[in-house]
Design goal:
Blueprint: H1 2-20, H2 23-33, H3 74-78, H4 82-108, H5 117-144, E1 153-157, E2 163-167, H6 179-184, H7 192-226, H8 232-238, H9 244-248, H10 251-267
Antiparallel strand pairs: 1-2
C-alpha cells in the first residue's frame, strides 16, 4: 500500500531509537544530575504495533467480506459503568480511525473496501454511547440542581426564513454589545424576494413528498397485483403511509386475483 511505504521506514527508525535507550540508564542519569526532590519515577511503554494500528489485520487485506458483530445498542450500554463507557469510547474511536484509513487506501488503490457496513455500526454505537452519557448527565443535574444541564436552544428562522434549531453558547461580550455576533446571527427575514423563495421552497418540498407517496402507492399496487396472497400486515409495516386495505379492495386488484385463481383451478 502507498501509505505503508512511507510509514513503515519511519516507524522502524523510531523503534530502533527507543530500543537503544534503557529506562534504568535514564533514571540513573536523572538521579546524578538532579536533586532528590526533582526526581520522580518514570515509565515507558514498549512499542508493540506502532503505526500499524491504523490498519486492519493483514489477513483481511484483499478479502471481499470481513466477519464482524453487531453494533452496541442503548440497552447494552446502559448496564455499563462510566469507566467502561470511557474505555469503550476510545476503542470505538480507534476502530473508526482504522476503518477510515482502510477505506481511503482502498479508494486510492481502486479496490473494494470489505464490509463497509462496519463504519455504520461503529458510528451508530458511538451515537448510542453519547446518548447514554447524556441521559446520565441529565439525570444527575436534575437530581442536584433541578435542571437538565443541557445547552439551551430554540427553533428560530434564518435570513431566508428556513427554521432551524439554534443551540446557545456563552460569550465574553454581552449580546447587545457583540457586533460580530449580531452581524452573523440574524433570526429575522422579510422582503418580497424572501417570501417568493419560501413559496417556491415549500412547493418543492410538497412535490417531493407527493412523488414519494405516489411511488410507494404504485409499488404496493404492483406487489398486490403480482402476489395477491402477500401478507398485508407486513406490507403495511413496510409502507406506513399507504392504506394497504383500501388498495386491496380496488377492482383491478380483485380482478387480477380472481383471474389467477381461475387459471390455477382450470390447470388442475
Amino acid at each position: 500500500m502507498n501509505i505503508l511505504k512511507h510509514i513503515l521506514p519511519i516507524s522502524q527508525q523510531l523503534y530502533k531509537c527507543l530500543a537503544t535507550v534503557n529506562t534504568q540508564q535514564v533514571f540513573a542519569a536523572l538521579q546524578r544530575h538532579a536533586s532528590p526532590s526533582a526526581v520522580r519515577a518514570i515509565s515507558t511503554t514498549a512499542p508493540r504495533h506502532d503505526l500499524m494500528q491504523f490498519f486492519d489485520d493483514k489477513k483481511n487485506w484483499g478479502e471481499q467480506e470481513v466477519k464482524h458483530g453487531r453494533g452496541w445498542t442503548k440497552d447494552d450500554l446502559r448496564i455499563k459503568s462510566n469507566s467502561d463507557l470511557h474505555q469503550l469510547w476510545f476503542v470505538l474511536l480507534k476502530e473508526r480511525n482504522m476503518l477510515l484509513t482502510m477505506e481511503h487506501e482502498c479508494k486510492e488503490k481502486m479496490e473494494l473496501f470489505p464490509s463497509p457496513e462496519r463504519l455504520d455500526k461503529v458510528k451508530e454505537s458511538m451515537e448510542n454511547l453519547e446518548e447514554v452519557v447524556r441521559e446520565r448527565n441529565r439525570a444527575y443535574y436534575e437530581l442536584e440542581t433541578g435542571e437538565t444541564g443541557e445547552r439551551p436552544g430554540k427553533v428560530v428562522p434564518n435570513e431566508l426564513g428556513i427554521r432551524f434549531y439554534y443551540r446557545a453558547f456563552e460569550h465574553v461580550i454581552p449580546k447587545y454589545a457583540n457586533r460580530k455576533w449580531n452581524e452573523r446571527h440574524k433570526f429575522t427575514f422579510g422582503g418580497s424576494a424572501v417570501w417568493k423563495f419560501l413559496r417556491l421552497y415549500r412547493e418543492r418540498l410538497y412535490n417531493e413528498k407527493r412523488k414519494l407517496r405516489n411511488r410507494e402507492r404504485n409499488e404496493v399496487v404492483h406487489l398486490l397485483r403480482r402476489f395477491p396472497n402477500i401478507d398485508r400486515e407486513t406490507l403495511a409495516q413496510r409502507f406506513p403511509t399507504v392504506d394497504v386495505e383500501k388498495l386491496y379492495k380496488l377492482d383491478k386488484i380483485r380482478m387480477n386475483h380472481s383471474v389467477k385463481s381461475g387459471s390455477s383451478s382450470s390447470s388442475t
